[in-house]
Every structure is written in C-alpha cells, then in structure tokens.
C-alpha cells in the first residue's frame, strides 16, 4: 500500500480513482434523517466491516454470564440442605411454585452452559488473530432483566474465529436472548420475587444483597457522605456540569447565614464569590423532561440547583464541599433551600440531585455529546476523505464499532420499553428529545477541552484545587494534540496545503451541512484554514472518541451500578419541607428492587466491556496499522507519553480518592460499547 497523500498532490489518474472510491463510499454510508433521533442524520445501516468485533461480542457475553450467575447465586438460597426447594421463610414450597422455579433454573443453567462452551475457544485465541470476514451486526433484544443490549455479531463471523464448536451455527446473541428470556418470563419474575429482588426496599442492605457474585462498588459504603456527593461533581460519571459563579443568583437565594452554617463563620458567601470559590451545578436543561412510569409506578425528576464551595486558601482541606440545594428552578415555599443541617430532608434533596445528574449524564454527556456527535465524524470521514487521505487513515481506528453501537442504541436502547425508557426518569419521547437537542446545540469549537474548562471557569487549580477529571483529561489532551500535530506535519507543510485540500474542505462542508451532520460552530470562517486549527479539531475528535467517552462510560459499572448512590429516577416528588421527615423517607424515593436490579445489569454491561486501547493502533490486527515509515517515531513518542501519564495518574491516586477511568491503559480507542 502506498503512503497516504493529499488529493491535490496526486496525479489526475489517482485523483479520479479517489473520486470513484468516494462515490462508492457515499453509496454505502447513507444518512437517515427519519429515525427516533430525527432530525439528526445517522447511518441508515451498518456497512460491512463496521460491525462489532467478535472479541468485543465475546466480552459482552461474558458479562452477561456473570449477570445471570449473580441471580443464580441468589436463587441458590431457595435450596435447602435436603436439595429441595423451600420458600424464603424456610417452609416447603408448594408443588406448582416449585415446578415453575425448577423450570426457570433449568433453563438458566442450560443456556449458561451453552454460552460458556461457545465462548471459551474465542477467549483462548491470540489477541492479534486475523480479522474475521466482513459481517453485519445482529442485535439481541433483551427485555426486563437486561433489556435490549447489544450482544452479537453474525454467526459466520463468530464461527470464523471459533472454528468448529458444539454450536457452530448459533449466534451468540441467540443464546443470550434465550437465556435472558427465561428471566423475564412469568416464572423468572416469580423467582426474582421469591429471592427478594422485587418490590420496595426497606433498608440499604436490600440493594447490597443484589450483589451476590459481583464485588460491591466501593461507593456503597461512602455514598451518603457529603464529601463524596461533592467529589462526584469533579470525578463522577458526569464531571461536566459544575461551573464557577460569583453568586448563586436570584433564582437560588442562598443566604449568607446558610452559607456560614456550612463553611464556617470565618468565611462568607460574598467573599467566596469574589475569590472564585463558588461553584454551581445547574440542571435547568432537565426542565423539558416529562416524568414517565416504570411500569406502573410514577417516576419523578427535578431540575435542581446545587451550590458548592471551596474553603479559603490556607484551610486544612480545600476539597469541594456542598452548601445548599434547591430542587426546582424557581424559589418558593414549595421548593425550599436545603442545607446539611436539615438531616433527612438534605439526604432526600441530594438524592434528587443525583437523579438529575444521572439523567443529564446518560442523555446529554454520554449519548448526545459522545456517541451521537462522533456518529457525525464517523459518517463524514469515509464519505468525503478517500481511504488514502492522511486524516482518514488517522481517524478510522477511532471510529471502530461506533456506527454499530449507535445503530443498536437507536434501534433498541432508546426504543419504547427499552432500558432508557425503563430506567431513566422521563418518558422515552422527552428523553430522546433531550439527547437530540444536546447534539443540535453542540458547539464544536467551544467543546475543545481547554476552551470548555475555561468557559465553565473550572480551569484554574488555584481556585478549584481538586478536580481529577480536569487534571487527568488535560494530560491526555496534551499528549493527543502533540501526536496529531506531529502526524499532520508529515503531510501538510503549510496552511496553503490545508486550504487546497478539497477533500478536507468537502469533509468540513458535510460536517456542518444540515443535509449531512449539521454540526454547529465548527471551522474557521466557513472553512478549515490552518494546520493549527485542524490539529485542534482532530485532537478533539480523538479525545472525544477515546478519553471523553471513557470518562462518562466506565463509571457506569464502578459507580452507577449501586442504585442508592446514583438512582436514575425518583419514585416520589422532591420534599417541600426541611424538617420532620422520618428516617425511612429515603426509601420512598429510591427505585424499587426490580429497577435496581435492571440498573445493576445494564450498568455492568455498558460499563464493563473494554475493547482496544488508546495509542495501540496495531492491537487486534496482523502487522502494523500505519504503513508510512515516517509515522513510527511520533507514534512511539505518543505511546511513551501515555505510559508517563499512566504513572503520573497512579501517583496522583495515592494522594486522592482514586480516579482510574482516565488511566491510558483503561481507555479504548473508540466508542464501541
């Protein structure tokens, strides 16, 4: 294969060949503006070769096996010392119930065994096994227990890696679907009810006991602490909302007395604002959500305001602290201001902030501003940049699996009755609308990491000393930017080369066109004009596809799987009084146990599958990805810098509550789950 080249430098014959290649790609990568995500343009279908990698499918299936094993471990408590089934109270189980439970347990064990036998050879293959034949993705639609999660590639692709097995023609997804169908049957629901995984919880242990074979997330023992509530704003699943303010504002009339009750008499609200130590988490965007039901219980979601502050310079600790919460955008008797001195009411108010943060996270920060924004680049790149274009060569590994997972999400994850509909607080129509609006309002140039941090006023470590996401993400942005800049310098010798690159300008035009991707605030005065800007833009694309997605995706398993810490819906309205609530009030607001079990399973699956690794372009393929020998030195320098960042973050984690999602070794190259 010849080295990558710019189109204007090719011969007329080569330019014509490039045009033919792009014409074919445009027939393959086709926009569909009439989906649940309308008016966004998404892939009409997943092109051959762009489906799920079999190794990733196998990894997802292994997580499913663990999830089912977790339920089976709970079910084992129904088996007495005599080997017979007993009721939860210890007495004998009636024959009809026993027959139903025995049937569902048999089905679970049989499907579990089939899937185990099929997957064992897959995970024994060398990591760099040759790629299987092109394949189309298959999606297993799973309802109830772990609904509609992407699970499979075509059987022939799996067989191509596995070779002959006991089940050579079965799709992995078919086995998973039959396995989970057993759990969502009437007998399966009866089983869950008998083992205490249905109904309203009466204590935190009811949620803890759902973790039978899974390690209980560390947050389970500390989530009620106010310091952890603040830490989640800077190192949780959604560390992207907090912004510096001079005052809480007229719509959030926190008094100086309330502020001092938390931060001490030696400080004041006005002083903190003047010194840049006040921070606000504002969830106004959630006002458009219409509360849904699941399936017969009303759900609730607020658009709260939460005020935080950093102690003054010279204080023993300068960690962020929560000061006050208002569970509505408009102050009044029905929406009082809560502070930590309000006891149970404060705990319930924090829960409603967590619900808001979880919905903001899943719909805006995660689905909208990583998955769907990257869909635009994953579509425009093969349509407008020939395969030999250096930008196409650089970006393609960072789109692996993205169209497949997004296609599955559109078809199933955000479908009526799917996980988003069941778990999140809003109706599926209003939730989807919020995600779409997050893309329509997305300002590309304002989302470059240094710009975004400065715009929110959180870029200065002297005023906000502890912000793990900012500190680690900034290292990664810098490393990616250096790598991209050195890569581009090989092919673009001047800004004139950028302006003269008509494929690149066509790429930009499609990204910004309403008939294509429709992205806003991209480019420099209607074009891409400089090498410097192109380096920033490509850094943003690679950073978003890798580090940013890792930051919002993988805390789903490590933090969000424990429902009391981060519930995705409330089941009672926010309190309107600051005192007099019973200690049991919190359980009226937390999701019922069957919803918590669904959240555990969905979060473990979506946050528990890793495929590929940032900077390792040769991983899972035979030979070297980059064929241009000039790339070797800057690539190796990038890989060394990632290793240095790994060590730096490791040292930081010795001095802080560990933040591991941006360790380079934990960051995939692309959005593939």
From TrEMBL:
Keyword Metal-binding: yes
Pfam families in the record: Lipoxygenase (PF00305)
Domain of life: Bacteria
Residues in Lipoxygenase domain copies: 4-673
Sample GO molecular function, one term: oxidoreductase activity, acting on single donors with incorporation of molecular oxygen, incorporation of two atoms of oxygen
Gene Ontology BP annotations: lipid oxidation
Record keywords: Metal-binding, Oxidoreductase
Gene3D superfamilies, sorted: 3.10.450.60, Lipoxygenase-1, Domain 5
Keyword Metal-binding: yes
InterPro entries in the cross-refs: LipOase, LipOase_C, LipOase_C_sf
Ranges of compositional bias, category Polar residues: 1-15
Region feature Disordered, mapped onto this chain: 1-24
Family annotation (PANTHER family): LIPOXYGENASE (PTHR11771)
Protein name: Lipoxygenase domain-containing protein
Upper lineage: Bacteria, Pseudomonadati, Myxococcota, Polyangia, Polyangiales
